[in-house]
Amino acid sequence: MESAGALLSIDDDAAQWASVRISYHLRAPYPDRSFTRTEDGWRLWLPRPAVDRLEYLLEVSDHNGGTHLMPDPSNPCRVAGVFGEHSVLEFPEYHAPAWLDWDAPTGERAEVALPHGRGLRRDLPAQVWSPHGLGRDPAPMLLVHDGPEMDAFAEMTRYSSAMVAAGALPPHRVALLAPLDRDAWYSASPAYARSLTDHAMPALLDDWATVGRPVVVGASLGALAALHAELGRPSTFAGLLLLSGSYFTMRYDSHEQRFGRFYRIASAVERIVDAPTCPTDAPIVLACGTGEENWENNRAMAAALRGVGASITWDQFADGHTWVGWRDALDPALTSLLGSLWGAPAPG
Questions:
Q1: 294, 244 in Cβ contact below 8 A?
Q2: Are 234 and 280 in contact (CB under 8 A)?
Q3: 136-152, pLDDT tens digit by residue?
Q4: How confident is the model over 58-64, as a mean pLDDT?
Q5: DSSP per residue, 271-294
Q6: What mean pLDDT is predicted for residues 307-320?
Q7: 24, 31, 96: which is closest to 57 by C-alpha?
Q8: Which of 265, 300, 309, 346 has the fewest CB within 10 Å, making it most exposed?
Q9: How confident is the model at residue 33 (pLDDT cuts 50, 70, 90)?
Q10: What is the 3-state secondary structure (H, E, C) of 41-70?
Q11: Cα 81 to Cα 59: distance, rounded to the nearest angstrom
């Protein structure tokens, strides 16, 4: 492993595979992904993409034409995700967040079901995390789309716990909101947006004493859903952290047309970027991975919102469209946003 790239070597003494390719999802340019057969296995020199870490699988074909994806058996560095384990290459420039080594007490959790509005038909399940000792005292609230996955794979509550324990942020709650039908709910759905802003959020804030308006975090489709909800009901949120938003347009994302809600998303994005003014005064932080296919549409959205008067901060992280990339972006992107809104923690 070196800054210029990585040499991958895989043993295959029995010649069980007819071909081997590396599989990952990053934006162009695309180097040759096919391994070369050697005397006892396979080898590939992979020029470093525009990232500090790369999650990948191997696409292997047998001699009968069958093909499947699997982690790299020669690489012990792996990461879990909703689609199973992936192998990981960490280039010399990659550094994990410092807060992963900080004290992070477990805290307390409560399961809740938030009411839905017309057109959704199902309540919104959520889990509310509180730092140890907060109890029912009033505190700021952080709402997280894809909450269970952001917690499991991007260590959302570990981040909050570490920041609270270190005195970097005041004690606050984290509402981990779970989508029951993610592709439908988070794809600029008017029914979901109404349910979130008009029903779920008021109920959540009634049950949990909250200081000020909540701040929302969303990644990918979850970022789109958060922005769509806030622009439809301005002042629902005090601030937004939008990670790798799926702001599909025909110009940059025609390859996504197979996605069933592509045209609904593209229409919603067109309405946002063509609006003469921005209805919200909430500060918005947009962040995207340098290697992502969503890179261009995120930069275009940031420019469009800034052009109509929104308070925009642009950030980037050297990764792809990954949970770990979003985890690594939390500090300083979210820390700075929350610090500006919540102020310094009260002295202990």
A1: yes
A2: yes
A3: 999 999 999 999 999 99
A4: 93
A5: HHHH-SS----S-EEEEEETT-TT
A6: 96
A7: 24
A8: 346
A9: confident
A10: EEEEEEECCCCCEEEEEEEEECCCCCEEEE
A11: 18
Q: What angle do CA 133, 137, 139 make, to 5 degrees?
A: 100
Q: Where are the alpha helices (DSSP H) in the chain?
A: 147-154, 156-165, 182-185, 190-194, 201-207, 221-232, 250-253, 262-274, 295-307, 323-329, 335-342
Closest CA to 262 of 276, 249, 281, 275: 249
> DSSP label at 101?
G
Q: What pLDDT, on the 0 to 100 scale, is given for residue 346?
A: 59
DSSP string, 74-100: T---EE--TT--EEEEE-TT----GGG
**For 249-256, what is the mean pLDDT?**
91
Q: Is the pLDDT of residue 345 over 80?
A: no
**Residue showing tokens 């610090």:** 339
∠ CA 266-271-275, rounded to 5°: 150
Q: Please, which residues have CB within 8 angstroms of residue 94's CB and are 6 or more apart in sequence?
A: 52, 53, 318
Cα-to-chain-centroid distance, residue 116: 24
Query: Per DSSP, what are the bridge partners of residue 34?
Result: 21
Residue 325: which of 55, 21, 5, 13 has the closest Cα?
A: 55
pLDDT exceeds 70 at position 347: no
Averaged pLDDT score across all residues of the chain: 94
In this structure, are residues 315 and 285 in contact, taking their beta carbons and an 8 Å threshold? yes
Strand partners, 210: 139
pLDDT at residue 113 is higher than 70: yes
Q: Which has the closest alpha carbon to 301: 236, 252, 233, 258?
A: 252
In this prediction the pTM is: 0.95
